[in-house]
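Risk mitigation, structural track. In case the binding assays with zinc ion fail to produce interpretable data, a predicted complex structure has been prepared as a fallback.
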Amino acid sequence: MLGRDHALTGAVVFAALAPTLHMPVSDLPAGVVLAAGAGVLPDIDHHDSTIASSFGFLTEGFSRVINAISGGHRHGTHSLIGVAIFTAGAWASGALQQHAHGGLTVGSFGSGALSWYMIPALVYLTLLYSSALRALRVGGHHGDLIGVAGAAVTCYLGTDVVPVTVWHWRVPFLAVAIALGCVAHIAGDELTHSGCPVLWPVSRHEFHLLPKPMRITTAKLTENRIIFPVLVILLAVAVWHAAGQSITLGPAHPGAGHTGAGHGASGTGASLGSRNAP
Ligand SMILES: [Zn+2]
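Fallback model:
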């Protein structure tokens, strides 16, 4: 599947689940773009992929290292353990980012200076923003610079460590976006002829979601004329639903400083409260 459609798939899945996650509406644009970046993240194991091309020889060289470590293209990074490592990496970078401010809450970030502890989160965010913009052909030659600026603003505001609701837990938003984007990517590749070795390294069996005659060929008619337009429509509907539900159903949080209201009195109130706590 093309990087464009992997990015769209990650964005669609995240936008569709945003109300369930109690994602603050003001963070929805960043969430959708970062999930789009996460949608191309597993292909970091291929030197010619969208994400590997985002910062020239730096990301290309990094992709070759990942390729060697993960057993080649469509192996480790397209498995459950790969998703777990990507997600844990995002979680750890967020924890370091918060540690840079002595464990203070996100709202205090405005008074903090750049710290070495923030570098992993900045790198992660830059890679995701830039690859999403590149995959979606947004920003042209300036896409990478926009990605760097987006990462700096996101890190400064602490958007990536805003907790969202996953069952009974409160999980940093970036870790959730990474997990959803990577799972969406693997599901997309499982629609193609190659499939994915989800249980790697225990098993190299390649899993498919479609019977053999229905499997799609990358960049051919089915992907360009059916899957791509359907994903664009689904993304528009999902974003409209997530934003609309947030605006109409939730009362604005007093003193929250967000332009949008919550997804609901309890869920979003908790999100905003934790983000703006003294
Ligand atoms: Zn892939």
